[in-house]
Amino acid sequence: MTERLYYTDAYRQQCESAVTLCAPAGAHFEVELAATAFYPASGGQPHDTGTLGGRRVLDVVDRDDARVVHVVDGPLEVGTSVTGAIDWPRRFDHMQQHTGQHVLSAAFEVACQARTESFHLGSASATIDLHRVVSPLEMATAEDEANRVVWQDREVRVRFVSTEEAAALPLRKESGRVGTLRLVEVADFDLSACGGTHVRRTGGIGVIAVTGWEKFKGGTRVEFRCGGRALSLLHEWREALSATNRALSVSPAELGPAIERLQSENKTLGRSVRALQEQLARHVATELVTAGARVNGRVVVAQALDGWDATGLKAVAAAAAAHDGTCVAVVSASQPALVVVARAAGIAVDASAVLKTLMARFGGKGGGKPDLAQGGGLVGDVSEIVAAARDLLAT
Hints:
By secondary structure, the chain is an alpha+beta fold.
């Protein structure tokens, strides 16, 4: 067994201990110590990192037999005493988030009778899964209650009890462990069995900010950030809000209505653009049909067009195919090329088959029906693609 120093002193940033085992593990080495301050991944909280005897600690693993294994990037001599140094900013961040989770979960139970089913501490945010769906009002109430406890700077105590003693205590969640249990208590607010690292007083959490939530497996998944993470997110939001304010020349309070106004104007503009594009497409199509070659009793149009997207090309092809006796292939001048093939009713041309033949030669993807087909990603000289399409339409 490894003595776990973080159980009684989460603020310990260094430790010195004897190496009891060092074994190769792929490109790295697994090292065991008589005692360690490094926290292994467990209970939703990630592992610590840092250095051990000058080696980088890449992972810390909790074995089933109560051993703690440190995965390092180089060997350490068994029997020697080495110094371990915790990556403190990472550890303290985890302490803020994990203690914040205890307080927030207890707040949901107290304010909303919503039970926490699971907890996950990610690299950017943390989440708890509640057993039921909660309303926005309940979310705000629980968040306020949690921060009230944070700002009261209550003591966070750690103690060890037997399974029998724990059974008589008001634990927020029953523990499935047997033997000695480690309890983390937020004074007069929460009592939970937990092996994680926590701040000494709730004031060390700083703030608990719920940043989002969603329905999840019949309940609610709540995303939150505490302390430094909440401040970092505030910095991101502030920069984004300032940039938006400068671009729109409005105050933060006017931002919502300004965006709605822009969206409405954009929809109106989009409708106008589409109407003008359709008019231009009909005009271009008429010019193409007028200049088209008459082959085998049909008008064959094959042309490269510059400045048209897929929607525009389709509009031109459809407008050209509206002329009796016409078959058409329009190709974008840009690479990789877009192609739209269309034909008027009664013409013995399969637009889909023409497109497939072009793609077999020039690559790309697409499909359609006998009267209209479109594709993209064709690679080759545009003039060659146009010539090939013309030959296929004329056949």
